[in-house]
């Protein structure tokens, strides 16, 4: 089919492929783009981060850096630390984004990540407490999109999980006499990750057809999107459906089943990469 037809009638162009159960990029409707993850110093040179990861989902490329800092816990949650996620969509990653303060899409993505952390209990905030009412860890999780071609949420959750798996926190004690904290950088331990949430996103076409891992063009042409987050036990952590076409119970169940399968693929990929970089 000609380039002209794709430009003038993009939706009709897509429908012709979807009738044959495939997409213009050659993928089947339930097929993900090639997915890669690099962790820690193998992914980038964020030397100031305590953990980092770079995830590529087709052309969509996301980097996550985690910085751990010490702070006093909040008065109403004296035994908890903090996790502060932030998603950035700079103008360099796509012409759809502008320079300046975070736009609506970046804010929505940051809120989505915060909800995933909370709902999945991937990190229990009590685990970040060092001394009750006195000292706790704050984890600043900066997720930056380097190249945007759809399905930001799957790539962001994957990059966050991989970066957190890479975090090593130094041993911290409070000196009884001075009341000051003492950090031992030679004695580090990995962050306790209780659950491994993985996101799986779908675009809805013509109100009925579901396609997995949509590109930016597919998201624009679709009548809605839905993101399912599951953990390693197949438990549903969250369903993110920002408007658009409603889904029947049966369709939603289809999405959950596919998300559980995807979880196994992603977990296998992370485990393989971590094993390859762990000192023998």
TrEMBL record:
Q: Where in the cell is it found?
A: Cytoplasm; Nucleus, Nucleolus
The protein's UniProt keywords, in alphabetical order, are:
Acetylation, Cytoplasm, Exosome, Nucleus, RNA-binding, rRNA processing
GO molecular function per UniProt: mRNA 3'-UTR AU-rich region binding
The main location class comes to cytoplasm
Domain Exoribonuclease phosphorolytic residues, every copy: 32-170, 197-260
**Entry's Gene Ontology BP terms:** exonucleolytic trimming to generate mature 3'-end of 5.8S rRNA from tricistronic rRNA transcript (SSU-rRNA, 5.8S rRNA, LSU-rRNA); nuclear mRNA surveillance; nuclear polyadenylation-dependent rRNA catabolic process; rRNA catabolic process; TRAMP-dependent tRNA surveillance pathway; U1 snRNA 3'-end processing; U4 snRNA 3'-end processing; U5 snRNA 3'-end processing
Q: Name the domain of life.
A: Eukaryota
Q: Which SUPFAM superfamilies match?
A: Ribonuclease PH domain 2-like, Ribosomal protein S5 domain 2-like
> Can you list the GO cellular component terms from the UniProt entry?
cytoplasmic exosome (RNase complex); nuclear exosome (RNase complex); nucleolus
UniProt lists the family membership as follows: Belongs to the RNase PH family.
Q: What name appears for this protein in its UniProt entry? A: Exosome complex component RRP43
Organism from which the protein derives = Serilophus lunatus (silver-breasted broadbill)
